[in-house]
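Form 7-S
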Amino acid sequence: MQSEAGRLGVNMRLELIFGILFVASIAILVPASAETEVLMVNINPDNVDNRIDEEVNFDADCTVCNEEQLEYYYWNSSIDGVLTSGSDFLNLNFAMGSNLFTEGEHNVTLQVKGDGNWSEINDNSTTILTVIGDEGKDSELSVNFDITPPSLRLGETARFESCTTMQPEPQPCTDEINPDLSFAWHIQWDGLGNWSYLADTEAFESNQFQVGNHNVRLTITDNSNEDFSEDTKELLVLPPIPILDIEGPDQVSIKAGEILAVNSTCLDNYFQEISCSYEWEMWEDKAGPSLLFRLDTEDLVLDNLTEEVHNYDLMGRAIDGTGTYSSWVHLFITVNPPNEPPVASIDISPESLGGLTPEYYQYSTLTFGSSNSNDPDGQIVAYKWWHNNDVVSEESTWISEFSDLTIYQVKLEVRDDSGAWSSKVSANFKIVENTPPTASFNIGSEGLSYNFNSTSSDVEGTVTNFEWSVNDIVISSNENTTWLASASGTYKITLMVWDDGGLSSNTTQTIEVVLSASEQKNFVVSFSSKNIEPGDSFTMDFSKTTGDVDHYTVVVNNPNGSRDSYKITIPTANGYNYTLMFPVKGVYTLDITVIWADGIAQDNMADFYGPTVNVGGDGTETTDETALEEVEDSGLPSISFFISLLVTGLIAISRRQR
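Output:
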C-alpha cells in the first residue's frame, strides 16, 4: 500500500512539473505588449549661465517614441514648469536659450503617452539642469575700454572700443543680459581745460586730432536705473610723418648711357607740399646688396648707371622741419643694353606703273607710308618727311599730288622712344604724262538683239572702266554688252571709258531700228517651272517682248482669296527678268498684262498671260469643278447659251496658260 501510494505521489509531482513548464512555454511564446516607458533623457550642456545666451539641447528616447505610437509628451521643470509639450514626434527633442531659465537646480522630467497609457516618472525620465547667474540684484557697472594704438602720428587713425566690442576678447561692462547702456566719449586736449565731445557709440574710429598728450574719458550710463560710471585713458598724438612722393612708377627700365631724372615731392599728412630735406642711397639690387653712393638733393639726375650692375635699388626719405623722417621709398631701376637706333622705310601707294624708277601719272595723288619702319628694341614715336630739303610732314604718312613731269625724291627719318633718330632714307619716283584713253567699239546684231563690243585702248596704261548708254540712259558698266530693241527709231549708242590714271574719253554711234508690223507689238513672256515648293522662286522672262513698252502689271490671286499687285518696269536690276516668291502652299493664278507706251491695247487677249503656279502640290495642274444643280425651267437662258459661254471660257483659259 505504501509503495502504491508512493508511486501515485511521484506521478502527481511529475504532472505538476510538466504543467508548470507548459504554462511557462506558453508565456514565452506569446509576446506581451510593451509598456509605455521613457528609456533616457539628456540635457547638453547641463550647467549654464543665464546671463549668457547659450543653446541648451534636450534629447530623449522611449518605447513609443515613433511617429505611429507617440500620442502626447511634455517636458517639465521643477522651477520653471512646463518647458514644451505636444503630439508631434519630430518636436520631441528641442533646444532653448540658457537666458530663459531661472537660476537654480532644475529637476527636468519627461512623460510620454502611448497606447493610451502614460509613462511613469523615474530615474530614466529625470535629469538635472543647473543654472547660475542673475539673482535679481542690481548689477555692478564697470567701464572697460581701449584706444588702439595709444600713441600715433597726426593724420593716423585710432580705434576706440568698449565693453562687448573690445578685441581680442569682449569685456562686458555689466552682468545683465541685453543691458540698456549709453556711451559718451570726450577728450581733454593736452590734459587741460574743457572736455570736447568725440562720439556716443560703443566703438568708433577717428583721425581728427591735434599734436599733444591728451586725456580720453568714457562715461557709461545704465538707462534702466540711471547709474553711471566713467574712466579715463591717455592718447599721445605725435607730429605727422612727412611723405616722400616720387613721380612715376616704382619700377623703371633704361638703356645703358641714358640719363634718368628722378623728381620727388615732400608732402604732409594732408598731402600738401612742404619744405623738406632729402637723403638718397643707391644700392645694387641683388642678394647681399652693397651701397654704391649717397646723395642729398631733392631731384636727381643719374647718368652713371651701367649695364654691368644691371639692377639698382634707389632708396629715399624726406626730413621735415621738425626733424621727423618719412618712411623709406624705393625706386627699382633696371639698366638694359645700349639703345639701337630705329630703321626708316618708305612705301608708296598706289602701285607704280613700272619702270626702273617707279612711275606714276601726272596729277596722281600719292600716299607715302612708314609702316615698314621698325625699332629693334623699342617703339617709333616720331616722324619727319622731307621734300626739296624741307620738312613737309611729321605724321606717320604724307599725302601729296605731283604735276611736274620729272623725277622726285622724298626722304624719311624716324625717332624711337629712347630719343634716337634713324638715318634718312630716300625714295625716288618719276611723274609721267597721262593721255586720255581712246574710246571705240563695234556693233553686231541678230534680229532685234544688238551686241556692243569695246575696242578701246590706252597708250600709257590700261582701260579700267566702261559705261554704255542708249539715248543717254546707262544700260551697262561691262566691257561688252547686249541690248534688245523694242521700238523703231534712231538710237544713239555712247561708250565712255576711263584709264588707270583717271582720265576718260567717249565715242558715240547711231543706229536705225525698224520693226516689222509683227515686231512692233508682240507680248511674249516665258516662265520658270510652275510647279514649285514653298519658299522657291518663280521667274518671268520678258526679253522676247517687242514694241515700245511702258510697263507690265502682275496680279497674284492668292489661295485665300486675297490679291497682290505689282507694277514692273523693264529692264530691272535683273535685266528682263522679274522674280516672285511663294512662301505658302497652294494654287496661285497670275494675271500678267503689258501696257504699251502709246496706250493702245491689242485685240482680244494678245496683251495678257494667265499662268497657274502650283506651290507644294503634286506637280499636276488641276481645275476646280462645281456640279451643276438641276433646276426647273424658270425663263433662264437656254442650254445652248451656256455651251457658247463655256467654249468662250475654254479659249480664254487656253490663252491664260501660255
